[in-house]
């Protein structure tokens, strides 16, 4: 279109365009096309399905938690592996670990720190319920100040009942708690499991030997019955842990705890986000939290529940003060710094979005899960979005960035060369 305008101007006004003018137009065209190419490259890099080499659980992988030691080139991924032969999936869910040495471009299976196992649940009065103990929604964090236990793994241990000819499985959240292990290295060995956190009223005996009754930490928590979806984060000598606090009706708020002694004791920090905040943002509740940092700023990732949609993508809120457990707000409403919609083509009632991010995971960026019923039996999946939390001039350029830059420069060179040749040809025909 630029060329047509130039030619019309030359023919109607009898003004020969100068070489400098031609080059300016060429650079404008080339720059516009370059940004289009970068945009296309970013789109093509988005939502790359994560496959863990050496691990292929029948129903897929879910609940990513990515962590790197400060400045390390080696990264670790904790995730839920789902398998077992029931319809439509399970009943087993366990924590697996994978390792990357290329900033999240590829992942290789390493180990199973939390293995699901079959057992009978003691419901009292001689009643035994067959099922499995599962480990879900794990969170991996590196604590550099705790020699010999630098790596910490939090998971939601929950009983899932199974019965003969039972085609669906059902979690029993009343029989659950946040479990905890430590290790000097993610490759292991891991410490014995500790039943670390529960509400206090639950779980019932004989499973009530949990180290910390969270509801006892603050009077505002006494209406909560179960805690799930841990999100661990190390900052300035303190381990912070976000949790979904549930009432009997479901997710009610995101609770923030902290430990100043490497996970031995815990204190209540605050409730950065609750269902009271949801309507102003067009949602009903929040779940599936993680705490992450990007360029020195700290963020809370959550997945919102909307009408008819349990997990509807990922929202990122910025902490005003993580020490106080407060978010940046405008007129009392939490400010959304990033909104990553659920992946397209997913079932309306349940999509996905319990995401995680680490700045050193440059080749993968934010990791976001999704449920793909069309891919049964492998319905649980997550993707590398190649996105950072804070915007960059060229989003997602970190992955294959060199190839993109070289390609763009090549296109610019070709366009400029073609434009210059066209100018010479046009002026030669004009007798100059």
Low-confidence stretches: 1-17, 36-44, 394-404
Query: Strands of the largest sheet, in order across it?
Result: 7-8-9-10-11-12
- Tell me, what's the shape? globular
Continuous helix count: 3
The total count of strands amounts to 25
Q: Strand-residue fraction?
A: 35-45%
- Portion of residues in helices? 10-25%
CATH fold field value of the largest domain: Neuraminidase
Q: Quick one: biggest sheet?
A: 6 strands, mixed
Cα-atom radius of gyration: 26 Å
What is the typical, i.e. mean, pLDDT?
85
Under the CATH scheme, which class of the largest domain? Mainly Beta
Describe the structure.
The protein has 432 residues and is of the alpha+beta class. The protein has two domains: 2-42 and 403-429, no CATH class; 48-384, Neuraminidase, CATH 2.120.10.10. It is 16% helix and 41% strand. The protein is built from three helices and 25 strands. It has helices at 2-13, 19-45, 401-429; strands at residues 48-49, 52-53, 61-68, 75-83, 92-100, 107-114, 117-122, 128-142, 151-161, 170-183, 194-198, 212-213, 226-235, 238-247, 250-259, 267-274, 285-294, 297-305, 314-321, 326-327, 329-330, 333-334, 336-340, 367-371, 380-384. Strands 7-8-9-10-11-12 form a six-stranded mixed beta sheet, with no helix packed on it. A five-stranded mixed beta sheet has the order 2-6-5-4-3, with no helix packed on it. The longest helix has 29 residues, at 401-429. The relative contact order is 0.13.
């Amino acid at each position: 279109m630029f060329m047509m305008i130039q030619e019309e101007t030359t023919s109607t006004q009898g003004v020969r365009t100068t070489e400098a003018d031609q080059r300016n137009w060429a650079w404008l065209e080339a720059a516009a096309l370059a940004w289009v190419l970068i945009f296309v490259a970013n789109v093509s890099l988005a939502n790359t399905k994560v496959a863990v080499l050496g691990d292929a659980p029948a129903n897929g992988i879910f609940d990513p938690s990515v962590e790197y030691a400060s400045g390390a080139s080696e990264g670790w991924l904790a995730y839920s592996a789902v398998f077992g032969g029931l319809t439509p999936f399970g009943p087993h869910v366990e924590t697996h670990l994978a390792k990357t040495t290329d900033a999240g471009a590829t992942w290789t299976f390493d180990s199973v720190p939390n293995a699901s196992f079959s057992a009978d649940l003691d419901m009292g009065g001689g009643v035994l319920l067959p099922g499995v103990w599962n480990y879900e929604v794990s969170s991996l964090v590196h604590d550099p100040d705790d020699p010999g236990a630098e790596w910490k793994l939090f998971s939601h241990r929950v009983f899932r009942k199974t019965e003969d000819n039972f085609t669906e499985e059902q979690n029993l959240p009343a029989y659950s708690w946040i479990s905890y292990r430590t290790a000097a290295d993610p490759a292991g060995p891991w410490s014995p499991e500790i039943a670390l956190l529960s509400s206090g009223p639950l779980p019932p005996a004989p499973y009530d030997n949990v180290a910390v009754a969270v509801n006892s930490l603050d009077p505002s928590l006494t209406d909560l019955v179960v805690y799930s979806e841990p999100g661990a984060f190390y900052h300035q000598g303190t381990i912070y842990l976000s949790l979904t606090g549930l009432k009997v009706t479901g997710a009610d708020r995101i609770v923030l705890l902290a430990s100043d002694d490497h996970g031995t004791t815990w204190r209540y920090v605050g409730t950065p986000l609750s269902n009271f905040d949801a309507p102003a943002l067009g949602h009903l509740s929040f779940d599936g939290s993680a705490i992450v940092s990007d360029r020195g700023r700290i963020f809370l990732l959550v997945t919102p529940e909307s009408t008819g949609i349990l997990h509807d993508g990922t929202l990122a809120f910025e902490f005003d003060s993580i020490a106080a457990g407060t978010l940046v707000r405008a007129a009392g409403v939490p400010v959304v710094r990033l909104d990553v919609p659920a992946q397209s083509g997913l079932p309306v009632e349940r999509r996905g979005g319990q995401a995680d991010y680490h700045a050193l995971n440059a080749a993968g960026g934010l990791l976001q899960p999704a449920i793909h019923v069309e891919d049964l039996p492998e319905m649980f999946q997550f993707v590398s979005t190649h996105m950072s939390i804070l915007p960059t001039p060229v989003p997602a350029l970190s992955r294959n960035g060199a190839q993109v830059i070289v390609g763009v420069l090549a296109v610019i060179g070709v366009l400029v060369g073609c434009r210059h040749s066209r100018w010479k040809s046009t002026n030669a025909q004009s007798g100059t």
